[in-house]
Design a protein that fits this description.
Oligomer: single chain
Order of helices and strands: EHEHEHEHEHEEHHEHE
Distance between the termini: 59 Å
Helix content: 25-40%
Radius of gyration: 19 Å
Strand order of the largest sheet: 3-2-1-4-5-6-9
Strand content: 5-15%
Number of strands: 9
Largest sheet: 7 strands, parallel
């Protein structure tokens, strides 16, 4: 049996032995908004539902960026959201801002993932959706990337998806729920200097398709969202590293010069796609890869020199 979660303080470092949640009031008695159009999770009966019937979503990698946006959008839509990350302080801030329940855990460690899923089901009574969003990038060419960077990237971006799926799928099957992996267009198109990241994201997408094939007969849907450049804390760090003294706005403008919409996405735009795949309005979408990239992957790279709307560096 999983051990009861020990309360944590916002300034307390994450423990690595089990997922934990701060001692805070139960948010499940907030006014229900399950009749909103984009309500994630199953909605078998029209109108309002009791708090205990509201779907439960688990968002991994939710201390910032896309994960935090999914949590906020999910609670706005009436779901009960459990958020997970390793950084206790940042996670608590996200949870407090949107009314989610925080659990501190490392989703690259099997024991912690098993404890995490068990704790969410114990605390909320069910599990309707999982978002595998934990991610990292360690750039480097094939001859330069260290073994440590390769292993760390695959553990975070690929192994975590496997561990979350293995722990959550029996509960998702019971709820006829959904699993969404946050991949990347880097897993669909090759680029120099991102071998570990690209390989891990490509693998995560294929693993998600395998989940769809194996568990579709059990009522579970599994899909992948592949964002392009999205303005998040991690992307900001990349911009600062690779574009020298440019401002962030100028750096993003340069990085998205080939994007038909000529801008990066907001994290909320990706979150909306994730929640659509978790919800009933995508009930026959399974094993799909949805790009949220402003049209980038539709561009023919061989025709770029003939596009007079593109300004070279």
């Amino acid at each position: 049996m999983p051990r009861p979660a020990r309360p944590t303080r916002p300034d307390e470092p994450a423990r690595n032995d089990q997922p934990t949640r701060p001692d805070q009031p139960d948010r499940s008695d907030q006014p229900d908004r399950s009749d909103q159009p984009d309500q994630p999770g199953p909605t078998d009966q029209p109108g309002r539902t009791a708090p205990s019937d509201r779907p439960v979503l688990l968002v991994a990698g939710a201390s910032s960026g896309i994960g935090a946006a999914v949590a906020a959008r999910g609670t706005d839509g009436g779901a009960r959201v459990a958020v997970c990350a390793r950084r206790a302080g940042a996670l608590r801030a996200v949870a407090d801002a949107c009314g989610a329940t925080p659990y501190v855990a490392d989703v690259t460690v099997r024991g912690e993932v098993d404890e995490l899923v068990a704790a969410v089901v114990r605390d909320h009574g069910r599990l309707d959706g999982v978002v595998a969003n934990a991610g990292t990038i360690r750039p480097g060419g094939l001859l330069d990337l260290s073994d440590e960077d390769w292993d760390a990237t695959l553990r975070t971006n690929l192994t975590s998806v496997f561990l979350l799926a293995r722990a959550a799928l029996p509960h998702l099957a019971a709820a006829r729920g959904a699993f969404v992996t946050v991949g990347s267009v880097a897993g669909l198109r090759a680029a120099a200097g991102a071998s570990a990241y690209a390989a891990s994201k490509a693998g995560a997408g294929m693993l998600t398709s395998v989940i769809a094939a194996e568990f579709g007969p059990h009522g579970v849907r599994a899909n992948t969202v592949c964002p392009g450049w999205t303005r998040t804390e991690m992307a900001d760090e990349e911009m600062r590293e690779f574009t020298g003294g440019l401002s962030l706005d100028a750096a993003y403008a340069q990085a998205t010069v080939l994007v038909p919409q000529r801008r990066a996405a907001a994290a909320e735009e990706v979150a909306d796609a994730v929640l659509w795949l978790l919800g009933p309005r995508s009930s026959y979408v399974n094993g799909a890869t949805l790009t949220v990239d402003g049209g980038l992957t539709s561009v023919d790279a061989g025709r770029v020199p003939f596009d007079f709307h593109v300004t070279p560096r």
